[in-house]
Amino acid sequence: MIGGGRGFVLGVAFVAATAIGACRPTDDAAVTILAAASLRDAVERSTEAYASDRPGTRFVVSSDSSAALRAHIEQGAPADLFLSADTVNPARLVDAGLADGAPVAFASARLVVVVPAGNPAAFESPRDLARDGVRIIAAGPEVPITAYADRLVAALADLDGYPADFEARYAANVRSREDNVRAVIAKIALGEGDAAIAYEPDAGSSAGVETVPVPDAASVVATYSGVVVLGGGATREARAFLAWLVGPDGRAILDDLGFGHVGEVAP
């Protein structure tokens, strides 16, 4: 089954960049957010909506893998708020004494198998991830999607009809490992791979790809969490935005983009 630069917008300065240098705010009033690559669209829409009711509020946002952004914060990169695709990386900032308060879980996302538009490799189910000759695009070992994907592959291996060596076959089919999940999906859209495991909202908002649903019995749900960074230049504003994100207005945007609620489980 296949389913299928810098500018001012409403008072928001939004910069999407993978280079950490682009995270530096242009002045002390800007709230600097480092956000997981899979949150790029959600953060852009959320900051625009938030600032529309708060004239003068400005954000500078950089996106990359959660692990890379956390490492940059540990190395002293300027940041007020860290929004991660997992709970592990924000917790590591807390353990390192670099967080101002506890992490806040704000969204979830189910995992799906992503294939190029038109499904040229004729995937019928995730079982085809173990098929001989399939080219799988994955992410690096520190990227959150990798840990979630490993859980999904292990869960699929336990299902009836899946080969006993499903995990080994999947691993043997991995052809490249990318810096973040957006880069993974981009390679699938370009036809440089036959399939990948990704977050459902990310796949749904990306052109050039289709999704292969995962059986409910093997469903894996990712949890997104955020934490205010200690010593940022806009701590109070960052805390207010995070509270807004988990409130009804932020929740409505996340819902519209296909993110689930925290604690969601497979039916």
Give an account of the 3D structure:
The protein has 267 residues and is α/β, with parallel strands linked by helices. The chain folds into 2 domains: 8-106 and 223-256, Periplasmic binding protein-like II (D-Maltodextrin-Binding Protein, domain 2), CATH 3.40.190; 109-218, Periplasmic binding protein-like II (D-Maltodextrin-Binding Protein, domain 2), CATH 3.40.190.10. 33% of the residues lie in helices and 22% in strands. Helix 1 links the parallel strand 3 (30-36) and strand 4. It is elongated and about 55 Å long. Mean pLDDT is 89; it is low at 1-27.
Major sheet:
7 strands, mixed
Overall pLDDT level: 89
| Secondary structural class | alpha/beta
Stretches where pLDDT falls below 50 for ≥5 residues?
Answer: 1-27
Whole-number count of domains:
2
Radius of gyration: 19 Å
CATH topology tier name of the largest domain: D-Maltodextrin-Binding Protein, domain 2
Helix amount, in percent? Answer: 25-40%
Terminal CA distance reads: 18 Å
- According to CATH, what is the class of the largest domain? Alpha Beta
CATH superfamily of the largest domain: Periplasmic binding protein-like II
Q: Estimate the global geometry from the Cα principal axes.
A: elongated
Number of helices: 9
β-strand number: 11
- Give the H and E element order: EEEHEHEHEEHHEHEHEEHH
- Level-2 CATH architecture of the largest domain: 3-Layer(aba) Sandwich
Please indicate the percent range of residues in DSSP E strands (runs of 2 or more). Answer: 15-25%
